[in-house]
């Protein structure tokens, strides 16, 4: 008998004044929970979560990291929860000390907007990409080590991600772009695979915890999951019904989560080719009500821009276009 899945909304985190473009959480369950978000309001918020008297979850910014002069586009947390890497449309990366909330290094070698950044699993290498259409490699001291010269994307790089360190799979990293291409790179920066994965721009790429699957999604509203050992065609394909802005794999369940213009959608990844396996197990939307002239309620629906899960997959965080972060509790029952 299939497990029953429940998504219970726990509360809101309110502090941003514009789109919540990125959310990250601690991925080591042995360390204290941490939630950090970035926004088009140019700020980064480190959240303190607490329960209200009615049992709902609430949060307030414990630290506000200021310094970027344009949209914050991506965030990466170090393995020990002590440092944060941020990317921005202001053409800079910044490295933050989370203990005291200060910026320790600025990466200023980029000539155009940066849309994405990633840290290697050992936290020694930093990659970024964006409007320059090529990735750059830095060390944590903000020293530029390499600029991509071959196999360039023909349009903006929207996302770059490292694979986890797993036995039996050679480590790699991936880049995707507005040109619709997915490129898989070896650790020595030689190309392993490259192909046109989507007919239009790809907005997001995610790698599952085993490193076996790569998920891509974007403007064409299609969610593809690729097997790293056979990239000739998607291993799984889903119709999101709306533009996909960001993707995340569940850390324990065989699920893929998408932040779309129509809300957050969750699919159970299944080998069965049945119609019900193509349907999301849940769609989580966010709308607000306001009173207009005559006391009439106006309902406004807000698109999901970012998504993240905590280390155990027990909490799901969604960032929306109105600046809100919604939090759901995820539970399964036999």
Automatic annotation (TrEMBL):
Name of the protein described by the UniProt record: Uncharacterized protein
Entry keyword set: WD repeat
One Pfam family cited in the UniProt record for this chain: WD40
UniProt KW S-adenosyl-L-methionine keyword: no
Record's keyword annotation contains Transport: no
GO molecular function, one term: translation regulator activity
SMART domains: WD40
WD repeats: 13-49, 65-106, 195-228, 306-334
């Amino acid at each position: 008998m299939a497990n029953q899945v429940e998504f219970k909304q726990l509360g809101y985190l309110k502090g941003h004044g514009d789109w919540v473009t990125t959310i990250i959480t601690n991925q080591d369950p042995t360390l204290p929970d941490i939630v950090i978000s970035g926004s088009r309001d140019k700020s980064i918020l480190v959240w303190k979560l607490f329960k209200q008297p009615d049992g709902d979850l609430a949060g307030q910014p414990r630290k506000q990291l200021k310094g970027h002069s344009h949209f914050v586009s991506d965030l990466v947390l170090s393995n020990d929860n002590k440092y944060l890497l941020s990317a921005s449309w202001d053409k800079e990366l910044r490295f933050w000390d989370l203990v005291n909330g200060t910026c320790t290094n600025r990466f200023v070698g980029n000539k155009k907007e940066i849309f994405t950044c990633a840290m290697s699993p050992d936290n020694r290498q930093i990659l970024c990409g964006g409007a320059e259409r090529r990735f750059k490699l830095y060390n944590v001291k903000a020293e530029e080590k390499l600029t991509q010269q071959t196999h360039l994307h023909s349009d903006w790089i929207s996302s770059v991600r490292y694979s986890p360190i797993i036995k039996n799979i050679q480590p790699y990293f991936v880049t995707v772009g507005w040109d619709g291409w997915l490129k898989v790179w070896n650790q020595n920066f030689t190309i392993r695979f490259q192909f046109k994965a989507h007919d239009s721009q790809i907005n997001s790429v995610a790698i599952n915890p085993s490193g076996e699957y790569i998920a891509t999604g974007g403007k064409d509203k299609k969610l593809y999951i690729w097997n790293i050992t056979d990239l000739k065609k998607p291993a799984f394909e889903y119709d999101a019904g709306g533009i996909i802005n960001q993707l995340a794999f569940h850390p324990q369940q065989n699920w893929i989560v998408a932040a779309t213009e129509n809300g957050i959608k969750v699919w159970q990844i299944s080998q069965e080719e049945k119609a019900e396996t193509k349907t999301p197990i849940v769609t989580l939307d966010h709308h607000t009500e306001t009173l207009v002239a005559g006391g009439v309620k106006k309902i406004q629906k807000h698109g999901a821009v970012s998504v993240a899960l905590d280390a155990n997959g027990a909490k799901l965080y969604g960032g929306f276009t109105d600046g809100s972060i919604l939090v759901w509790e995820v539970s399964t029952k036999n």
